[in-house]
Amino acid sequence: MSFDVVAQQPKLLYLLQGVAAFAAVVSLILLALHRGPVRRRAAALLLLAPALLLLTAGLVLPGLRTVMLSFTGGGGDAWAGFANYVWVVTDPRALVALRNTLVWVVLVPLTATSVGLLYAAAVARSRFRTLALSLVLAPMAISFVGAGVVWKFVYAFRPAEAGQIGLLNQLVVTFGGEPRQWLVDSPWNVLFLVVAMVWAQAGFAAVLLAGAIRAVPGELTEAARLDGASPRQIFRRIILPSIRPTLLVVLLAQAIGTFKAFDIVKTMTGGQFDTGVIAHEMYDQAFRYGETGRGAALAVLLFVLVTPFVAHQVRAQRRAG
Amino acid sequence: MRSGARLALAVITLAALVTACGVPQDSGAPTRTAADCGPYARYGEHPGTEVTVYAENRDREADLFEETWADFADCTGIDVRYEGDGEFEAQIQLRVDGGSAPDVAFFPQPGLLERFARAGKLKPASAGVVALAEQGWSDDWNSYATVDGTLYGTPLVANVKSFVWYSPKFFRDRGLEVPRTWSELMAVTEKVAASGVKPWCAGIESAQATGWPVTDWIEDVLLRQQGTGVYDRWVAHEIPFNDPRVIKAMDTVGSVLKNDRYANGGFGPARSMASISFQEAGTPILTGDCAMHRQASFYADLWPKGTEIGPDKDVFAFLLPGADPATRPVLGGGVFTAAFADRPEVRAFQEYLASADFATARMKKGSFVSANKGVDPEDAATPVDRLSIRLLQDPNTELRFDGSDLMPASVGAGTFWKGAVDWIGGASTRQVADSVERSWPSR
């Protein structure tokens, strides 16, 4: 498709209008602040007003609407009371999604951060540090959808007599085993999805932690070495305590990201074979099945679950800053 | 340095000029003074208008649609903008809620169409479409696009689902006859299995929709064992999902699909079905690694390039038999048009899609089946398409629509599909039927 300037003109016009409106609002605010004496609090409020307005329109109101929808039936009209929440905690399918989300949230941050930490510790002082870090960061450049497709191929199943197209089953066959349907056999398939997520996430942890490890003062480790500490002791007694704040931030960020995991499940199994997670189940209910109320209830649940993590993250950052 | 910079600037300018010349100036419909605009005169002229179409068909199928209505677009001046999306079923809801509904959508499930009709989002069909619908389709077909007595559109595509694909050569070499009854079918199955070849190919992987080929099997067998009356009541949930008659149909299907001696040919034990896509599942027929693949008429399009279809060619299909060769109900599926806008050009386009001319033009371009009474089966691209159209046009055919497409989406596209996958994976019939029954929305 070629880009046709004439056909795009209305959009360009909207863009111009938007920019003009933005400029107008900003100058109005500045003008108001300039005029006469304004109390500091009022000034702050005035400066914050546009952001608050957008936040209300884009976040608070939709959030409230979702909460309301979670008390209505499928079409979003009839009042359903707590039926959707009862469904969330009784329906086998929803319970599987809850169970899987729990597994994900426990396993992904811990594994991704551990893998990232080991990798970072190994390469932090190496000469090939940049190369090594960009290698482990590469999966992050791929979207989760891409990662899902890649790993779907890794787990692909073909019978023993046919040629394997999946890496993992090829390995199994090479060592004389029977090919398995990795993504089908529940409950282990959840772990294979977790591996894909860890693969996509570990680089993020490695890069942040490598930075933190390098920031540990050299004199400290030097002194420890002179005192006769082994590398393992240095790592456990000096490096780990020094990078604790970063470690915590990385863990929390991974946990928050894991709650929202959707793309990997969708591309690899479509939530079939008991691999659904809350975010994916929410999408299925709300958009594929027209069960808006149940979808909204799951969204509210997700929000509630993620809140303590976000709160802790904010507090940790404030303490660090 | 400076001369270098100047040179670079000159090159860039030149390149810009050249590419600017290369950009097509006219993005609208090419003006064509075709002599063949006669057939399109009845749709009027709508120069400078645009109709957006949203559907799930992409790639080749989308191209074929666009080629088919190209003349219509040229002659009426309507710019038909087609968009295909593999996530149609989920995205259409977002598009409509977000205020950017397409003018025309092709609904693959009557249940989905009904949802939007009940929400008041769809526009009732114009008088022209209603007239064409009455003339072109049986009452049954029109009823699927009718909600509370109002018609919203017409069937665009029809599928006959009750086919069993096979290799005529494989059958000939082993002295097998095309079965006419269920017991003959089982005899053929056993004979092939005894010779060391798994008789049935049956991959059911289809991304989010994994499992649907199994639900088709169950529907087809229920229809054959209990007749249309029980089937209709089951689909409408007037009898429970786990009614003993349904359990019986499931167990019959299970005796084939859950039997490691019978399935899944070319790919391993019955459980391997969940990992093998339904598209590639039938291909072992070509290499003699399985004998039969129960799959819809549209499977004609999924054979590898160069596969010939016919009674004495590489592959052919017979209707899934029932107890009695005289009466064989047919399970069908289809895609329906419906409009979210009520402008003259949208009406004109929907009328064109409802015409036998459109179906005929599309059939001439490749495998396609329409249930329109006005199409000539001889125009069909493959013998199986021809057979399908004859079946659809035959007033004696007892056609029933794919039940899972008519059930509430959370069952038909949710728990039923999932249950089918669990069932193939080893869950008992009773367990699966009970859990689907429990999942039925109470509204």
TrEMBL record, chain A:
InterPro entries: ABC_transporter_permease (IPR051393), MetI-like (IPR000515), MetI-like_sf (IPR035906). This is Sugar ABC transporter permease. Keywords: Cell membrane, Membrane, Transmembrane, Transmembrane helix, Transport. The keyword Repeat does not apply. It is a multi-pass membrane protein. Pfam families: BPD_transp_1. Belongs to the binding-protein-dependent transport system permease family. CDD domains: TM_PBP2 (cd06261). The chain crosses the membrane at residues 12-33, 45-64, 102-124, 131-151, 190-213, 234-256, 292-311. It is found in: Cell membrane. Residues 98-315 form the ABC transmembrane type-1 domain.
From TrEMBL, chain B:
Residues 1-20 form the signal peptide. Pfam families: SBP_bac_1. Keywords: Signal, Transport. It comes from the Bacteria. InterPro entries: Bact_solute-bd_prot1, SBP. Belongs to the bacterial solute-binding protein 1 family. PANTHER family: ARABINOSE-BINDING PROTEIN-RELATED (PTHR43649), OSMOPROTECTIVE COMPOUNDS-BINDING PROTEIN GGTB (PTHR43649:SF29). This is Extracellular solute-binding protein. It comes from Streptomyces solicathayae.
